[in-house]
Design brief:
The complex is a heterodimer of chains A (469) and B (640). Chain A is an all-alpha fold and 469 residues long. In chain A, helix 1 runs antiparallel to helix 2. Chain A is built from 19 helices and 2 strands. In chain A, strands 1-2 form a two-stranded antiparallel ribbon. Chain A folds into 2 domains: 255 residues, no CATH class; 214 residues, no CATH class. In chain A, a hairpin with a 4-residue loop joins strand 1 and strand 2. The longest helix of chain A has 32 residues. In chain B, helix 15 runs antiparallel to helix 16. In chain B, strand 1 and strand 2 form a beta hairpin. Chain B is globular and about 90 Å long. By secondary structure, chain B is mainly α. Among the domains of chain B are: 266 residues, no CATH class; 55 residues; 33 residues. The chains are: A mainly alpha (469), B mainly alpha (640). At the A-B interface, helix 1, helix 4, helix 5, helix 6 and helix 11 of A face strand 1, helix 5, helix 6, helix 24 and helix 25 of B.
């Protein structure tokens, strides 16, 4: 039942949200519903519970509504479950027109995400993949910034092309299964020839690569992050990009082992180029949101490179990092949002000296910033350490070049801290106040998670050891 | 005794938390007391541990598994042996004196900033302790990056000043370049041996090929270059003088910058097996020692002279490591910690008295106003110049003697550097304390000796700078008189067994000592005479003097060959490739966007809520109600 609840609670509460009045009612309801999901999510961590669910769905097609939770799924379910209440609480002060629709769509996205991380039937997986994406198109295009329509369109074109290719791929595999089934077991059992693999691999890979994104398929992302309402951006970058990484681990590599080996080199090289490329662009940004966006692309680039290097130790790192990157990047967006809401600008050239006015925010951002550069004793260190180990085992030089991003990461992250917080105050920050209590509270929790898992990461590492198959 | 080990880093951590969280509510006296007392408590425990190690050898304390994956176990463990217990004493002992000094030096800060200062300083000591106590390379790396963080925070302590912020950022980034080398070395070790624990690495060293060892040691040394400010990664250290002066004394002279020497000494067995890396270290060390000394000759900022002097002295330590004189290098770390901390704190006392003036051309004659600072500073200068029997004489001599055995050229160049050291230090001393006062009348009116919280640490350090060398008296004077060597012997035993002992005759050694001492004394006399009569001039430096005054234009060079090209490349990526390259393809449908956006706006003006609800319900329809899916199956069979 637990896997089903993780999807059902957000779906049902989403539908109810649409019938609520606008304003605080919808806000509070979303917060309560997502907290309930979080409690179930935490309960799902228990080692002895029954974590599978199976029911008839589309019998003639050979697709079943089957869900299951292993260590990998748990990691991402936990991330999804934590993220939504954190996002709702930290953006509680933001007002949205038609807020019932806004929160309803958000909860629907959560249901989709949960489904993606739980489904063990490929058609069901596809269904949830779309369920997670479609609400986001509306969230961006209705509540986004000035350029929202053009940006949503770009986002839509990219992801829709990806989804379409994936659907073709799924159907192709479906017709290869002897018993015409979408079950993950049937897909894993497929004996595809090399040439079949080589073709179908790309159908899936492109969809996942766009979602992650892997260079050069990333250009939808900075725009989408910049133009979406911050609450949506947090989900997009904190949780949704993990769909691509998760799918590579869960579906792509086990189904196409030989094609993976064949194309690993080129994907790793593209990922590493993307890391350096995105890091350098991040250095030149004048906008907090775009800086965090490119920083995130660089981090995801490392994860995808490590994924395709196919080393166990690296994969442990990727799985830990999926969670930690989510926590850290959401923290950074909370700070970015607090600054924008408070000061009306996100441009470094219009900011400065904020540490004098908002010391608590400054301290919290400094912790987040150093987590972003994976300083030891923050959560990101262990993940990056294991990932680089994996990449190193694959190839010394690739690890060395990818390592340059460690240095560049320090450059843009410290630039950001300096330009926002240090120096003399400027007109925009002259009368700034400290951040509100609810934002402080959420950020402090995130910081405690960052340091807690930084000092004692073993529970996370243990989760990564339980993946089937 | 194992159960005491964790107390050493715990006290500073508690101090950090109390001062950090209580920065708005605590009074300044309480803040200073908590900050200093936490280090004093660590010092006391360190002494106990030191005695324990001395009597019964190394202590290993395992706490929990930091990382445990299938192929790799990294425990959170501490190792207290002769080497680390010595560093513990230096870090907590000098650390305490500098905390005490800071209570007076930073007294002009408002309470919250005062608390922030002590919190950072405590956090630094905590990280530095992790660095030297760690039982494996990963725990060392945690401390290694931790001290980098604290250095960043403290250099930029006065964060309203953007120049200081740049200096802080530069320090962190240059350190990160080195850290990458360190990390790659750790990965190499893990890949080849599957462990990073010191004991296991050294026990399994036979499994490493010669090439492996050379690469690992070289990569580790890249880390040392960053942290210990060696060529070419040294330029952050002089800029780091932006931080408060006690910070310069603690972090950028006595402790953090010696982390590289600690790391190489800790890995001495690896280095002894990698003669190519050792040769490289000797050359880099000597080159840094000389290069930084030339710059120090022409600097006029009291702290900058000391900063370049530190870079230069660190170079000597690496020269020692490079020629296999591990004990000598550690010895010099210790004596240098005494006299350089003393000199920096003395400089702080001067800056305090001069109301933040740091230009020695505007000082002079401070001897009569600052009697304690004057005498202690002079003792520090004698120690660093290597005048017998002050501490610097013994440690520097040990390094130079080992260099001589390796190659006399190293020795003669080293002596040349020592004479430059003597010159710039006595130039600094004479221009500051001797002659006539060259500052404003108002400054002169306010000149005063510093309070006792500052002069007590100066006095204690001065005593140590004078007598600290006696723990390592060379064999030429008395047999078995080198206490430090026998104390550290277990740490360096493996390396010693691998190297053949060449001993030059005692008479040669005595003669060399005599000649060098004579040259140093002559240099002191000349410098004293020349700069005590210094008059302010307006003539600009020309030729080589100008090049030295501008630090060989190295910062400009780095900007031209690294920073600016990278910046241009980043700009090209951002403005050309990202905008028109990749996006151009996607925006091929650009005209379409205008059209469709207009369409979308029409939809959007309607009832959004109802519209979305419709979508949701239809999706749910697919999910729940579409039981009869035969049409779809039929349809799909047609396509495929």
């Amino acid at each position: 039942m637990i896997p089903l609840l993780l999807i059902l609670i957000p779906v049902v509460s989403a539908i109810l949200t649409f019938f609520l009045k606008n304003g605080n009612a919808a806000k509070n309801w979303a917060l309560i519903a997502s907290t309930a999901t979080l409690i179930v999510g935490l309960y799902a961590l228990c080692p002895v519970c029954k974590l599978e669910f199976d029911a008839t769905w589309l019998p003639l097609l050979g697709s079943r509504f089957s869900l299951s939770l292993d260590g990998l799924s748990k990691m991402l379910v936990l991330l999804t479950a934590i993220s939504f209440p954190v996002v709702f609480a930290s953006t509680y002060n933001n007002e949205y027109k038609q807020s019932n629709a806004f929160y309803g769509l958000m909860l629907l996205t959560q249901a989709g995400l949960m489904g993606v991380f739980l489904a063990s039937d490929c058609l069901l997986f596809y269904f949830f993949w779309e369920l997670a994406l479609i609400p986001v198109y509306f969230l961006c295009s209705i509540w986004g910034g000035e350029k929202r329509i053009a940006v949503t369109f770009k986002f839509f074109v990219y992801t829709f092309v990806g989804s379409l290719l994936m659907l073709i791929g799924i159907l192709y595999l479906y017709f290869q299964t002897p018993d015409h089934s979408f079950a993950i077991k049937s897909f894993y059992a497929l004996k595809l020839s090399a040439s079949q693999q080589n073709l179908a691999f790309w159908l899936f890979f492109i969809a996942f690569a766009i979602k992650m994104p892997i260079f050069p398929l990333h250009t939808w992302q900075p725009d989408a992050y910049e133009q979406s309402p911050t609450a949506v951006t947090m989900i997009l970058s904190g949780v949704m990009v993990k769909m691509g990484i998760y799918a590579v681990i869960r579906w792509l590599i086990p189904i196409f082992p030989s094609a993976t080996v064949k194309y690993a080199d080129i994907i790793i090289i593209a990922s590493v180029i993307g890391m350096i490329y995105a890091s350098l662009i991040a250095i030149k940004q004048d906008d907090v949101k775009r800086l965090v966006a490119y920083s995130s692309i660089a981090h995801i680039g490392l994860m995808s490179a490590v994924l395709f290097s196919l080393k166990t130790i690296g994969w442990n790192g990727v799985m830990i990092q999926m969670f930690n990157h989510g926590i850290n990047v959401i923290g950074l967006w909370i700070v970015a949002d607090a600054i924008e809401q408070k000061l009306g600008t996100r441009k470094f050239s219009e900011l400065g000296g904020l540490a004098q006015k908002a010391p608590v925010l400054a301290i919290l951002l400094v912790v987040l910033a150093f987590a972003n550069v994976a300083l030891p004793l923050t959560n990101a260190f262990v993940g990056e350490f294991l990932m680089f180990n994996g990449l190193f085992q694959y190839n010394f030089w690739i690890a060395g070049v990818a390592g340059i991003s460690i240095i560049l990461g320090a450059v843009y992250t410290l630039n950001m801290v300096q330009k926002i917080f240090y120096g003399q105050t400027v007109p925009a920050t002259q009368n700034a106040l400290e951040i509100k209590g609810n934002v402080q509270f959420v950020l402090i929790i995130l910081v405690l998670v960052i340091i807690g898992f930084g000092v004692y990461p073993q529970p996370m590492i243990d989760l990564t050891k339980h993946i089937h198959p | 005794m194992n159960n005491l080990v964790f107390l050493v880093p715990l006290f500073p951590l508690i101090g950090f938390l109390i001062n950090g969280l209580g920065r708005k509510s605590l009074a300044k006296q309480a803040i200073g007391a908590i900050g200093s007392a936490s280090i004093l408590a660590s010092f006391v425990v360190s002494i106990i541990l030191f005695l324990q190690v001395k009597s019964s050898g190394a202590i290993i304390a395992n706490y929990f598994n930091f990382i445990d994956v299938a192929s790799l176990k990294i425990p959170f463990a501490f190792q207290i042996d002769q080497l680390s217990s010595l560093f513990l004493l230096i870090i907590t002992g000098i650390g305490f004196l500098i905390h005490l000094y800071s209570t007076a030096y930073m007294t002009d800060e408002e309470a919250p900033h005062y608390a922030r200062y002590f919190a950072y300083l405590n956090l630094f000591v905590f990280s530095m302790l992790l660095l030297v106590m760690g039982g494996n390379y990963v725990i060392m790396f945690i401390g290694w990056e931790g001290v980098g963080l604290c250095s960043y925070l403290l250099i930029g302590f006065w964060f309203k000043n953007d120049a200081y912020n740049y200096a802080a950022k530069k320090a962190f980034i240059m350190n990160r370049i080195g850290d990458l080398g360190f990390l790659l070395a750790v990965f190499w070790l893990i890949n080849k041996l599957g462990t990073v624990t010191y004991g296991e690495v050294f026990a399994n060293i036979g499994k490493l090929s010669h090439q492996d060892i050379t690469i690992i040691t070289a990569l580790l040394f890249v880390g040392a270059m960053g942290k210990s400010a060696q060529l070419p990664l040294y330029t952050w250290l002089p800029d780091a003088m932006a931080g408060p002066t006690p910070v310069s004394a603690l972090i950028h002279a006595a402790t953090m910058v010696t982390a590289g020497i600690y790391m190489v000494s800790r890995s001495n067995l690896l280095y002894t097996l990698a003669p190519a890396t050792q040769g490289f270290i000797a050359i880099i060390g000597l080159a840094t020692a000389l290069f930084a000394a030339t710059i120090a000759l022409k600097q006029n900022d009291i702290k900058k002279v000391l900063a370049y002097s530190t870079v230069s002295q660190l170079g000597y330590m690496f020269l020692g490591l490079g020629v296999g004189a591990y004990t000598g290098a550690v010895f010099h770390v210790m004596t240098h910690a005494f006299f350089k901390a003393l000199l920096f704190l003395g400089a702080g006392s001067v800056i305090h008295a001069m109301h933040h003036e740091q230009d020695i051309r505007k000082m002079g004659g401070l001897k009569k106003y600052l009697p304690i600072t004057n005498i202690t500073f002079l003792l520090g200068c004698l120690a660093i110049a290597g005048v017998p029997p002050f501490s610097g004489f013994f440690s520097k001599d040990e390094i130079l003697a080992a260099a001589y055995e390796k190659n006399p050229i190293l020795y003669f160049l080293g002596v040349a550097g020592a004479l430059m050291t003597t010159f710039y230090m006595f130039r600094l001393y004479a221009m500051t304390f001797l002659g006539k006062f060259r500052g404003t009348h108002e400054q002169e009116h306010h000149l005063h000796e510093s309070p006792s919280a500052m002069t007590i640490p100066l006095t204690v350090l001065a005593i140590l700078a004078v007598v600290g060398g006696f723990i390592g008296i060379p064999e030429v004077f008395a047999k078995d008189s080198h206490w430090l060597e026998s104390f550290l012997a277990p740490v360096f035993a493996g390396s010693k067994a691998l190297t053949e002992q060449k001993v030059s005759s005692h008479s040669t050694e005595l003669m060399m000592m005599g000649v060098v001492t004579g040259l140093v004394l002559v240099t002191i006399a000349i410098t004293w005479n020349k700069f005590s009569k210094y008059e302010a001039t307006t003539t600009e430096e020309t030729g080589l003097g100008k090049v030295l005054e501008n630090k060989w234009y190295i910062d400009e060079l780095y900007n031209a060959i690294v920073v600016n090209p990278l910046d241009a490349l980043a700009g090209f990526f951002k403005n050309v490739i990202e905008k028109s390259g990749i996006d151009g393809i996607v925006n091929g449908v650009g005209t379409f966007i205008n059209y469709s956006s207009r369409q979308l706006r029409l939809i959007q003006s309607g009832q959004v809520g109802a519209y979305i609800l419709m979508m949701v319900l239809s999706m749910l329809g697919i999910l729940l109600l579409w039981i009869n899916d035969s049409t779809i199956v039929h349809f799909l069979h047609k396509i495929f």
